[in-house]
Amino acid sequence: PYHGTTRIRGKITQGIVTSKKSKNTLIIRRDYVQFIKKYQRYERRNARLACHLPECLVHEIELGDLVKVGESRKTSKTKAFIVLGKMLRGSP
């Protein structure tokens, strides 16, 4: 466990913080490309993920930050990811 007792298993991904209005919750935007077979081209898409924000990171993370999130068991109806930390822009 990174923060608290909830185990991280599954995907670890990153995204940009777009909303921090709810208590202990972040909304991040994850950009990706999807291949369209008919046109033999890629298109840009994005996904919004609701993530749990641990108490120890509440004051560290702001809107527009790049964050690393890990998949866990569902913590609410929409949240299945937990924020692991803030990433520096330009890092892999």
UniProtKB/TrEMBL annotation:
* A Gene Ontology biological process term: translation
Annotated GO molecular function terms are:
structural constituent of ribosome
* A Pfam family: Ribosomal_S17
What are the record keywords, sorted? Ribonucleoprotein, Ribosomal protein
Gene Ontology cellular-component terms listed: cytosolic small ribosomal subunit
The record's similarity note reads: Belongs to the universal ribosomal protein uS17 family.
Tell me which PANTHER family the record gives: 40S RIBOSOMAL PROTEIN S11 FAMILY MEMBER, 40S RIBOSOMAL PROTEIN S11-RELATED
What is the protein's name according to its record? 30S ribosomal protein S17
